[in-house]
Amino acid sequence: MPKVLISDKMSPKAPEIFRARGIEVHEKTGLSKDELAAIIGDYDGLAIRSSTKATAALIAAAKNLKVIGRAGIGVDNVDVPAASAAGVVVMNTPFGNSITTAEHAIALMFALARQLPEADASTQAGKWEKNRFMGVELTAKTLGLIGAGNIGSIVADRALGLKMKVIAYDPFLTPERAKDMGVEKVTLDDLLAKADFITLHTPLTDSTRNILSAEALAKTKKGVRIINCARGGLIDEAALKAGLDSGHIGGAALDVFVEEPATASPLFGTPGFISTPHLGASTDEAQVNVAIQVAEQMADFLLTGGVTNALNMPSLSAEDAPKLRPYMALAEKLGLIVGQLETAEIRGVKVEVEGAAAQLNIKPITGAVLAGVMRSFSDTVNMVNAPFLARERNIEVAEVRHERDTDYQTLVRVTVRTPEGERSVAGTLLGSQFPRLVEIFGIKVEADFSERMLFIINEDKPGFIGRLGTTLGEAGVNIGTFHLGRRGAGAEAILLLSVDQPIPEQLLWNVCRLPGVKTVKALKL
Ligand SMILES: NC(=O)c1ccc[n+]([C@@H]2O[C@H](COP(=O)([O-])OP(=O)(O)OC[C@H]3O[C@@H](n4cnc5c(N)ncnc54)[C@H](O)[C@@H]3O)[C@@H](O)[C@H]2O)c1
Ligand SMILES: O=C(O)CC[C@@H](O)C(=O)O
Question: Distance between CA atoms of 313 and 218, rounded to whole angstroms?
């Protein structure tokens, strides 16, 4: 039974779902990084929000971990490259808290426009300062969106309902999408010059870090009000403080900070400054949504292999996963065979599918091939980290889907390219389930796969099979199945044997010395 650890506060829906699906779940929140590292090795899944930091060190300690599920959008608290390298799938829930976060941005915009927190504090202090708090209307004001994805587009929709004019800076926003959203696509400089309110909705990346730098803030309209419900680090906090102090910036509301938890900040106490403690996603509705989604996604992955919303693996629905499983098993075996037989440096791997396999999602098939190919140089390779390992080793990967008639109900062909040339193996599924090898290095065979196999290339000469049988028999190795293929009578022949016992090194030498033998290799599948 897989085991999942929930290490951040999450709706009770998440543990309920894990238990209902037969997964053992433990909720342990507020652990120090050492406490977490000490227990993480017991778990197959880790479900988190934003407090847990899934660092490279934690991932290295997580020997059984298969999946990290982020109940939320941003995965900046997860070292995704380290997870990928370790073969751990990282999933998020990209839509569950978008409305809630957009509403928080709108709430902060209203709070800034009418100085609600200061007015509330003053009134509750018994001051009744009616003349101190003069606000501004939102109607007809220009809202500048930086980032017009899920959350930005919901903010735009709500702002248009408030009769604001919405302009957006997002290099990935197409003119058609901008038109559909009812917003004007502008450059960043345009936005800075025109917006009365600016709201940020981008991830924190190299291109967005300090997007509101001192220089950018200096280009804003006097009195601009700024809202950040996306990520700390998008605004230069010192420059923001200076802008508020000088009166150039009319107000700023931050839900997110460079350092979190933000228990001290030079911004605290600055007139016109409002803050919330990363509450963007904190509504009952959003937390139930993300908890349900993360638990369902992680359970699907751990129980069926289905992949949804993964950042480091192609999607695979829970319905498609069982259909693809026999193809992936075949693909991995073909990869294992070429990976073990190829001694030269692999520069490229081509995966071709035809027949029934061509109707399926090819990505998981390719992932399985790569995992098989690279198993010969990494024990920890799996479908998640195989594409990353391939990239690291400059192995070019190609996928080809053939829509042609085939002699087989389905065919998967794997070709590896080395400085010495190309070699390929191909396989099919018998009865849509049982993998069979049908071609190896251009020679037709008809072989099933087994855990231990002996591969031999020899000259097709009379008497060889008898001598081989005797050699194996003398070493106490029993032959399970025996498959033969050859280029032609008397030409190069291939033998694939499944054997019941491990093949000792000495036996390989003895076979190698038999007359006519060109290559001998023990294969582990
Ligand atoms: N405060 C919270 O609690 C909270 C809750 C949910 C999400 N978030 C954060 O909100 C942010 C936005 O989430 P989303 O779901 O809308 O993401 P999204 O991926 O749907 O949208 C992000 C948008 O930013 C745009 N973008 C990327 N680089 C840009 C750049 N250099 N300049 C301008 N635009 C750029 C993208 O094209 C995309 O349209 C994320 O950082 C997420 O982590 C915060
Ligand atoms: O979990 C939270 O409270 C914050 C979530 C938010 O930052 C996100 O990126 O989804």
Answer: 42
Average pLDDT value for residue range 349-371: 93
Measured from the CA of 256, which atom of ligand 1 is nearest?
Answer: 1
Q: Is the ipTM of this complex over 0.95?
A: yes
In short, whether 332's Cβ falls inside 6 Å of ligand 1 is no
Give the domains, in start order, of the chain with CATH numbers: 1-95+282-308 (3.40.50.720), 98-275 (3.40.50.720), 313-441 (3.30.1330.90), 449-525 (3.30.70.260)
- Report which ligand 2 atom has the smallest distance to the Cα of 71: 1
What pLDDT is attached to residue 43? 98
Ligand number with the minimum distance to the CA of 149: 1
pLDDT tens digits, one per residue of 19-30: 999 999 999 999
* CA-closest residue to ligand 2 atom 4: 281
pLDDT per position as a tens digit, 171-227 = 889 999 999 999 999 999 999 999 999 999 999 998 999 999 999 999 999 999 999
3-state secondary structure 164-208: CEEEEECCCCCHHHHHHHCCEECCHHHHHHHCCEEEECCCCCCCC
Cβ(287) to ligand 1 under 6 A?
Answer: no
